[in-house]
Amino acid sequence: MADAYQDMGMESLSASEDEYLGDMPTQISQRRQQTVPPRQPEQQLATKVDLSGMVTDLKAFFTAELAGLKSELNALTGRIQATEDGVQDLKNQQDATAAQTLELAATCTQLNARMGQLEDAARQRNLKVRGIPDTITAEELPYLIKRLLQATFPPKQARSMTLDGLLCIPGRPGNAPESARDVILNFKSRLDKDGFLRAVRDQTPFAFEDLSLNFYQDLSRQTLQWRASLKETTAQLRTADIPYKWGYPRLLIATQDGHNHRLTSPEEAPQFCAPPSPDSGVKQS
Length: 285
Description:
Rec A Protein, domain 2; 3 domains; about 55% helix
């Protein structure tokens, strides 16, 4: 081989180089055997038994997973059901509380009305006089009321009328001294009070000693609120030119076509203002 290299004009190789080049195919083959393992087909392919085992293992795995999910789902369903039951219990309690609240409100309304009736009964002998200025002192007030009775009734009847007391209701703070105030007259007899109201009924306002006086029933706050709730009803009666008057204490009486129509509750107001009919539930007299 060295001769061949010499024939080609190349320098001859040393003995060691020549030996290395001669063993190169053997070295390459050995190196490939070290890096690439030999094929063993019979060990790489899975058998039918192996596949069956793998399927069984997968079935067991998924069965266990599904069982766990089913357990969690059942637990979640139980918690949802418990929550729904709790919400239903709260709703039932709320409904019961609402019913009790309505019942208590109706009871309070009845008690409030009853208290107003009792208060009105206690004020039956009272008369409210409006128009007396603050310039008239408490010492002068009894003499003014005495002269008022004498100017309203004959002397004998005026002397028979007695009062159990007077009550001055102060005016609002900041009012001028000459501003009007309310004075409550407490008659000894309710008949005397009613007689006085009849005497001054057609004189509104009542002129007396340069004063312009108005007279009212002394009613409870509840009754005044009840009458104020019928403001629209009385406005409709005035528009229709239908005479009306207040009964004592919670009664509205309107006269039409010779009949007296009585209203005792604000709920009757729409029917009260409607034209009368044979089937009407408005009380007549």
